[in-house]
Amino acid sequence: QVQLVESGGGLVQAGGSLRLSCAASERTFSPYAVGWFRQAPGKEREYVAIISWIGGSTDYANSVKGRFTISRDTAKNSLYLQMNKLRPEDTALYYCAARDSPVGSDFDSWGHWGQGIQVTVSS
């Protein structure tokens, strides 16, 4: 079972930037896609951004378009989330995830999850 480990979270003022990283433990890591999700207190988990592992195609939630950039480094088995112009409403526990198949649209179709990392944006 692949392990995903996030890093780079923390506290930042509104308008600031943070870069999240996620490293996979397996040397043969080759998922269909990887992505970032977040969950704020009292709210449901939501998708933030995804990127296909081979082609690099990306997709973003409307709430982060133009501010966040997802990327991956296949040689390092890692993915990243550059977050700019952060807002207090971006405060959440951020998770990286990976899926091995394009089939399915719910969270269960993402078979591998990190433990989550806190991002707090102060106003």
What's the helix-strand series? EEEEEEEEEEE
Main β sheet profile: 7 strands, mixed
Oligomeric form:
single chain
- Shape summary: globular
Number of strands: 11
Structural class computed from helices and strand pairing: mainly beta
How would you portray this structure in words?
This protein has 123 residues and is mostly beta strands. It is 0% helix and 49% strand. It contains no helices and eleven strands. The protein has strands spanning 4-7, 10-13, 18-24, 33-39, 46-52, 58-60, 68-73, 78-83, 92-99, 112-113, 117-122. The strands form two sheets. Strands 2, 4, 5, 6, 9, 10 and 11 form a seven-stranded mixed sheet that branches. Strands 1-3-8-7 form a four-stranded antiparallel sheet, with no helix packed on it. Strand 7 (68-73) and strand 8 (78-83) form a beta hairpin.
Structure in a nutshell:
The protein is 0% helix and 49% strand. It has no helices and 11 strands.
How is the secondary structure organized here?
Elements: E1 4-7, E2 10-13, E3 18-24, E4 33-39, E5 46-52, E6 58-60, E7 68-73, E8 78-83, E9 92-99, E10 112-113, E11 117-122
Parallel strand pairs: 2-11
Antiparallel strand pairs: 1-3, 3-8, 4-5, 4-9, 5-6, 7-8, 9-10, 9-11
What brief labels describe this structure?
seven-stranded mixed β-sheet; four-stranded antiparallel β-sheet; 123 residues; mainly beta
